[in-house]
Amino acid sequence: MSQPAPRTITYAEAGVDTAAGDRAVELMKASVAATMTPEVVGGVGGFAGLVDVSALRGYRRPLLATSTDGVGTKVAIAQALDVHDTIGQDLVGMVVDDIVVVGARPLLMTDYIACGRVVPERVADIVRGVATACAAVGTPLLGGETAEHPGLLGPEEYDVAGAATGVVEADRVLGPERVRPGDVVLAMASSGLHSNGYSLVRRVIEHAGWSLERHVPDFGRTLGEELLEPTRLYTAVCLEAVEAADGAARAGGTTAPGVHALSHVTGGGLAANLARVLPAGTVAEVDRSTWVVPPVFETVRTLGSVPWDDLEATLNLGVGMVAVVDPGALEAVVAVAQAAGLPAWVLGEVHDAGGHEPRGRLVAGTKGVDGGAVDLVGDYRTA
User: Fold this and answer.
1) Residue 243: φ, ψ to 5°
2) Which of 111, 116, 130, 171 could form a cystine bridge with 144, CB 3.0-4.6 A?
3) CB contact at 8 A, 129 and 85
């Protein structure tokens, strides 16, 4: 008795379209090429990206800084709206702005996109967003990968991740070791929710029954447009501020850095992230009344009856980056931010914990760091 002919199974039938992947690469090549700096060796398409680091010979003791991250469930908003050219900036902000916190200048970035089905135009949109943001911070997008995972992700689903490497002179590293009582805590405004807390935000929106197409007068645009507002990029401003502060410090007769620490306000909110860059034995008193909480945060709070304590432990509430600065360098740092059109204001001051009586909500021991503490005082102001 004859047996039926065996079924032929191809890679395409398994759900992987290599031709679509090649098409995606062709669509993104121009965007990626626009990020290339003179230090990049070779072009797009190699197994590995190369960058000339001969300039590091001029460093006394160069340290490499590295960071990796994603954008969390914000991708669900992009997928729901079929808008994919902004999520890349979120990725760059989440990765590169973590590197600058130690004072490092980014040298390169790579990205990774996992999707259930390669749609070349969609992948190219994502990468174009990454590339545009990389160009804005002077960082070449040196490599990447698009992986098709049928059966693991739905046809319209994807996730993104990235990694970056930077360099900083060893004796110019910023962090807790430089912070001391009397330092000023300076806030730099966020552009909105950035890329943290979207599980909370999406749950609140779902509970309220609001659609992403709903026009919200307080936002002046739709809910979806507000939720997709890209993460603000701080790298260029922070690097320039560090140089300006160093100049101010030299003018004051010292070679010590004028900016002592930076803190990128991401998951955990303002207090948890600021506490990470404070030394043990210090406390930063932060006045909540020094800024007006943007409408999107107040909307999330009221729609979900979210307690303020939970909100400030999850979202940035309008503060995206913090600088801990020597008082003598404060004016120089503020001037750099203002010249870049970035609102900046004094949040508070660092104190010796031994002589400080907490007046508000004390936050310490976060993110596994046994460092300083943050005392959140006053009340938030809303528009």
Assistant:
1) -65, -45
2) 111
3) yes
**Mean pLDDT, range 339-359, rounded to an integer:** 95
Q: For the residues 114-143, what does the mean pLDDT come to?
A: 93
Separation between Cα atoms, residue 107 and residue 164, nearest integer Å: 8
Give the tokens for residue 267.
């998951």
- Which residue has 């049928």 as its token pair? 150
Question: Per the structure block, which two tokens stand in for 8?
Answer: 């032929």
Domain 176-382 is in which class?
alpha beta
pTM for the whole thing?
Answer: 0.91
C-alpha to C-alpha distance for 258 and 246, rounded to whole angstroms:
5
Please identify which residue in the block is written with the tokens 């021991």: 365
Kindly indicate the confidence band of residue 45, based on its pLDDT and cuts at 50, 70 and 90. Answer: low
**Domain residue ranges in the chain:** 18-172, 176-382
pLDDT computed for residue 7 by the predictor: 67
Superfamily name with CATH number, domain 18-172: PurM-like, N-terminal domain (3.30.1330.10)
Q: Give the pLDDT confidence score for residue 223 in this predicted structure.
A: 98
Instruction: Please state, in angstroms and as integers, the Cα–Cα distance from residue 147 to each residue in 160, 227, 244, following that order.
Output: 10, 26, 43
Alpha-carbon Rg for the chain in angstroms: 23
pLDDT, one tens digit per residue, over 241-251 is 999 998 877 77
Task: Give the residue among 346, 372, 374 at the shortest CA–CA distance from 358.
Answer: 374
Read off φ and ψ for residue 27, nearest 5 degrees: -70, -30
Label residues 87-126 b or e (16+ Cβ within 10 Å = b): bbbbbbbbbbbbbbbbbbbbbbbbbbbbbbbbbbebbbbb
Report the interhelical angle of 120-136 vs 87-99 (nearest 10°).
40
Cα distance between residue 70 and residue 88, in whole Å? 10
